[in-house]
Amino acid sequence: MTRTNPQPRAKRMAPEERRKQILEAAAALILETGHSGCTLEQVAKAAGISKPLIYKYFSKRDDLIIALVEAEFAKLSGHGLDAIPPDLPVDESAGLVIERALRYYAERGPILRLVSTDPAVVNLARENNRSSRANTAQYFVKRSTEEYGVPLDVAIVAVTMVINAPIHSIGYLERKQIPIDRTIEVWREFVAGGWRAVAAQFGNASQKKDRKS
Would residue 48 be called left, alpha or beta, if left means φ above 0 and alpha means ψ between -120 and 50 degrees? Predict the structure, then answer.
């Protein structure tokens, strides 16, 4: 009688470390297969752990996918405003935030796009995405009205277009096989030039004079 070799015992990990390992395995599996329809059993196999162990962390598949969305948006937030030096000019700050967002979307964006089609998480993904961009937009609207002296409506128009463009364009640019470094180079120059033009056209004259002195 042929005996099946038992699955090797999973390496012992702290709960948070194990949870992170499971989510990373799920993300890698989704990227590999090109869809988010993976089961808990498939994720457990990819993570090298037993089925009973994965069920200790996620009682059902929807819980895992929701946790994955939340983890991905936490990573995206970590690429944003918290890492920006507060004394940077607005155009440089915006350029840096956009660069980090573009790199994130290039590396991890496919995961969000795939799981965002899942009925279990579509509303959560939309809300997290909307919230992340809204926080960034509010920050730059405030900074641009203070630093450039532009009217509020001008700041809202400029910031909204700058902040929302990357996520809506990165997939198309990737299909056109434009390297991410080239995309960032062009977009940062475009943003910096746009801020200067907006400030020159709509900015407060006294604040313009202060910046030149």
Answer: left
**pLDDT above 70 covers what percent of the chain?**
84
The structural architecture, per CATH, of the domain 15-59 is Orthogonal Bundle (1.10)
HSE at residue 83, side-chain half, CA atoms within 13 A, is 13
Nearby residues of 100 by Cβ (< 8 Å), 6 or more positions away: 79, 80, 83
Which band of pLDDT confidence, cut at 50, 70 and 90, is reported for residue 213? very low
Which DSSP category does 8 fall into?
P
Two tokens at 32? 């590999």
30-49 pLDDT per residue, tens: 888 877 788 999 999 999 99
Choose the CATH number for 71-203 among 3.60.150.10, 3.30.2320.80, 1.10.357.10, 1.10.645.10. Answer: 1.10.357.10
What is the dihedral sign for C-alpha 34, 36, 39, 42? positive
